């Protein structure tokens, strides 16, 4: 009886343990994982698994060897292989990819911001690269990654055929505010605004491609001006203390509005992967009609992925450029040098020359990230080099080449997010 008790006690004492801290945190917050009670120098695989709001499964994994104490520590030990390599504690998130047999060309996007991104992290014996569901893990922990901090409020905005979602930080306000414009994929994308509100900004995600009861023919400068005014006049917003943040076509609209609008006068603006080569003089319908006329400029690589960037150069030759010399507020440009969708780096260089000539170059700050692609999202988001995409101008579904390499793109997302937040606070906190 004594020997049996001693055997069970020893087994319990040596059972591997996995700790992930914090168990609950914001999506832009780092976590730390530690595995203990392993034999020294044991090969193990750390694996992450997430089921998206679209019911697709995503995974990442790294191969490790325990130290002389039988431990693996994410912030100091190297992954020797897997979906990421090196000392990359957040690699279990940013290197996620669809599991084998998943739908082709999908993208991971959060739809319900009030539910966390649940990530199951497990440790397996040996260095394995597939068949995780057929293996029994040595230990498992679930981490909750929240897009919204406790106390953040979500408000539906439905005014004058305008559709958006306003996120308000905890407290009584008033708050500095951000008008958040996503890209050409359309829909109401809320998760970046939710994170911004978690950092103290009243942020309104605006839908402008195909919202309810609004045609593209009716989506012109006045639509964005109404959105800006609604945000500026909200009782929880610090009046005239607004920024505009745009990604992709959202950046194109941002540059047009801050250059020409008599209504939109932000304290600062941020443009991610955008260009001044596409003047939006009339409606978005007319813009997409113009793009359709230059469809012959699209290129397709050997993997049948569409390279879109040359289309904007053709538009510029026909319509000219946005006169960024008219911009009167600080402007931050965030670009990846492997952007295959927009000529963002070339545009930034040309904008710098135009603003130098106009005498407002001091307002411009440029961040260019080597090896990063077009979709520079909040930190630790998986990298998407190419995904399915519906062209607004033709209603055709293609595979769009966004560009970028996984590890440098992940670095760009983490570094850019810190600098975007610092930029917003610098200019929106000023009197």
UniProtKB/TrEMBL annotation:
Q: Which residues form the BAAT/Acyl-CoA thioester hydrolase C-terminal domain?
A: 220-429
Q: Name one GO molecular function term.
A: fatty acyl-CoA hydrolase activity
What residue intervals traverse the membrane? none
User: Which residues does the Swiss-Prot or TrEMBL record annotate as the active site?
Assistant: 248 (charge relay system), 339 (charge relay system), 374 (charge relay system)
Signal peptide, first to last residue: none
Q: Return the SUPFAM superfamilies for the record.
A: alpha/beta-Hydrolases
Lineage, top-rank taxon, reads Eukaryota
The Gene Ontology biological process annotation of the record reads: acyl-CoA metabolic process; fatty acid metabolic process
Q: What does the sequence similarity comment in the record state about its family?
A: Belongs to the C/M/P thioester hydrolase family.
Could you tell me what this protein is called?
Acyl-coenzyme A thioesterase 4-like
């Amino acid at each position: 009886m004594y020997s049996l008790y001693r055997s069970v006690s020893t087994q319990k004492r040596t059972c591997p343990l996995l700790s992930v801290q914090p168990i609950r945190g914001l999506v832009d917050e780092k976590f730390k994982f530690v595995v203990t009670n392993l034999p020294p120098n044991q090969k193990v695989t750390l694996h992450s698994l997430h089921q998206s709001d679209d019911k697709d499964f995503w995974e990442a994994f790294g191969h490790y060897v325990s130290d002389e104490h039988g431990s693996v520590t994410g912030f100091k030990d190297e992954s020797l292989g897997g979906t990421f390599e090196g000392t990359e504690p957040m690699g279990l998130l940013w290197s996620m990819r669809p599991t084998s047999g998943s739908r082709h060309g999908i993208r991971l996007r959060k739809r319900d911001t009030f539910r966390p991104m649940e990530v199951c992290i497990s440790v397996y014996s040996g260095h394995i690269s597939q068949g995780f569901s057929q293996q029994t893990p040595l230990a498992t922990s679930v981490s909750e990654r929240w897009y919204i901090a406790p106390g953040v409020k979500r408000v539906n905005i439905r005014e004058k055929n305008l559709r958006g979602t306003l996120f308000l930080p905890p407290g009584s306000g008033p708050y500095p505010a951000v008008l958040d414009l996503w890209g050409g994929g359309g829909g109401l994308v809320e998760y970046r605004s939710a994170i911004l509100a978690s950092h103290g900004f009243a942020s309104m995600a605006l839908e402008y491609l195909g919202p309810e009861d609004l045609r593209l023919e009716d989506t012109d400068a006045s639509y964005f001006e109404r959105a800006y005014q609604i945000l500026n006049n909200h009782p929880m917003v610090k009046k005239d203390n607004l920024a505009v943040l745009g990604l992709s076509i959202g950046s194109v609209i941002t540059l047009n509005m801050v250059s020409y609008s008599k209504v939109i006068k932000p304290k600062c603006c941020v443009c991610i992967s955008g260009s001044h080569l596409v003047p939006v003089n009339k409606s978005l319908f007319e813009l997409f009609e113009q793009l359709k006329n230059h469809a012959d400029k699209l290129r397709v690589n050997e993997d049948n992925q569409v390279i879109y960037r040359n289309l904007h150069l053709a538009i510029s030759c026909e319509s000219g450029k946005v006169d960024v010399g008219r911009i009167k507020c600080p402007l931050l440009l965030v670009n990846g040098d492997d952007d295959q969708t927009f000529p963002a780096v070339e545009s930034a260089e040309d904008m710098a020359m135009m603003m130098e000539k106009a005498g407002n170059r001091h307002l411009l700050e440029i961040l260019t990230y080597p090896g990063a692609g077009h979709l520079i999202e909040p930190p630790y988001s998986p990298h998407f080099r190419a995904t399915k995409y519906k062209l607004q101008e033709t209603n055709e579904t293609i595979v769009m080449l966004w560009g970028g390499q996984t590890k440098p793109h992940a670095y760009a997302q983490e570094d850019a997010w810190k600098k975007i937040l610092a930029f917003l606070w610098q200019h929106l906190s000023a009197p």
